[in-house]
Design a protein that fits this description.
26% strand; 5-stranded antiparallel β-sheet
Length: 426
């Protein structure tokens, strides 16, 4: 079994380079990872150079170091971002470096004693300096991909009753399965998956869906449906699924795994209320059992059983009270069917329909990649200094589409895409 997993890990590393970011010969790569990922990082770096990488820069993350600054730095220094950070990110944008981010926390709860206001201050100082890089990534000026690597601490959160070694092994098996690295031909498997998800986006485009009505009939704490949300899209929506295309015409997969199709809400057209169905992590702090009520596209009331103070700071960020993304996910996805809560957005967002507060993806509106911020804002595309996903989907969720010509069509019932939507695949 260990030999099989090792073989699939090597396949996974190559898959991330050749299909995930689709690294081109002569292109440089920025790789972000935790120290606990080192063994797998070596496989990825080797795969990158085998694919013709010009250079691979590994940016190591270490939560204890970040915590030391957050707790002990003099307050006046928390806003400091060295100029060399700006310059190297500018070079990466100018030279179109691909970006691969490996997630999987080595210390998943270590920041629990840090004030959310301190975390917001540090994060916002960095975003304000490096906003151009975030914009370049979200506009697909460069290929990028987010993927996961198990750590002992993360595996034990997912499998709390397991021995550490067994938990890591089980989490590796789940990851390798959901990213299709266990298939005889992972690249072909991803090609088929891409086609299947794209057929659903074709259905949304053909039907000209302009509003989504989410209703979860399961009773909430007040006895009413847990969710009743009307979410209006822009006038020129584009639905995106699985692969994306860089501005230079290079296909890539932003997330591995991915089970969603998503678009951009109009930032003034959401009404009603919604409840989260899985933990969410603004500032890497847990928020659970959250409730949001919208009026004219803006959150006007919110609460959370866990993480209320985190939401208070999160919604102080520019643009965070309005939506930048809505995503549809079938509960038959392999991530949902695993029966696990992953406590990691990359996986939990691919188990459930979700919304994201903050910045929208320009590719989710016709011609968006070539538009200025002012032009995007005029079309109702949300601009913000953050983008955080909140999972809302359940096995009792229904989603109805309201079309441009006034029809209502069932898209999801009991958490599953309807036959009408799926038949579009045929």
């Amino acid at each position: 079994m260990q030999e099989l997993i090792a073989s699939q890990q090597a396949q996974y590393a190559k898959l991330l380079i050749r299909t995930g970011v689709n690294l081109q010969p002569g292109q440089s790569l920025r790789l972000g990872a935790e120290l606990a990922h080192a063994e797998f990082v070596r496989l990825v770096v080797a795969a990158a150079y085998e694919a013709g990488a010009r250079y691979v820069q590994v940016d190591w993350a270490d939560t204890p170091l970040a915590r030391a600054r957050l707790l002990h730095s003099q307050p006046d220094f928390l806003d400091f971002v060295p100029e060399y950070e700006v310059q190297r990110h500018r070079q990466m944008v100018d030279e179109h470096w691909a970006r691969l981010a490996l997630v999987g926390p080595e210390f998943p709860d270590l920041l629990g004693d840090v004030e959310p206001s301190t975390m917001r201050r540090v994060q916002q100082a960095r975003i304000q300096k490096l906003r151009f890089y975030m914009q370049a990534q979200m506009a697909n000026q460069l290929q990028w991909c987010v993927a996961a690597v198990p750590t002992t601490a993360w595996a034990q959160k997912v499998f709390p009753d397991a021995q550490p070694d067994w938990a890591v092994k089980q989490l590796w098996e789940v990851i390798l399965q959901t990213v299709r690295a266990d298939q005889p031909d992972p690249v072909a498997a991803w090609r088929r998956h891409d086609e299947q998800l794209r057929s659903l986006t074709n259905f949304m485009h053909r039907e000209r869906v302009r509003t989504l009505h989410f209703v979860d009939a399961a009773p909430g704490p007040d006895g009413k449906p847990a969710t009743d949300l009307m979410l209006g899209l822009t006038d020129f929506p584009v639905w995106v699924a699985a692969s994306s295309m860089s501005q230079e015409g290079i296909p890539f997969f932003p997330n591995m795994p991915t089970e969603e199709l998503f678009s951009a809400p109009h930032n003034a057209r959401t009404e009603g209320y919604v409840r989260t169905s899985r933990p969410c992590f603004p500032f890497e702090r847990r928020v659970e059992d959250a409730y949001f009520r919208f009026a004219a596209g803006e959150v006007v009331e919110y609460s959370a059983r866990v993480g209320q103070e985190v939401l208070n700071e999160f919604f102080a960020i520019r643009g965070a009270r309005r939506l930048g993304e809505v995503a549809l996910v079938d509960v038959r996805s392999p991530v949902y069917q695993s029966g696990l809560t992953f406590y990691e957005t990359l996986f939990d967002e691919n188990a459930a329909c979700h919304i994201a507060f903050g910045e929208a993806y320009p590719e989710c509106i016709e011609g968006g990649a070539g538009k200025s911020e002012e032009e995007l804002a005029a079309l109702g595309v949300n601009l913000a200094d953050t983008h955080v996903d909140f999972m809302i989907g359940t096995a009792t969720m229904a989603v109805t589409g309201h079309t441009q010509d006034g029809r209502q069509i069932p898209i999801i019932r009991q958490g599953q895409f309807t036959d009408a939507a799926l038949k579009a695949q045929l």
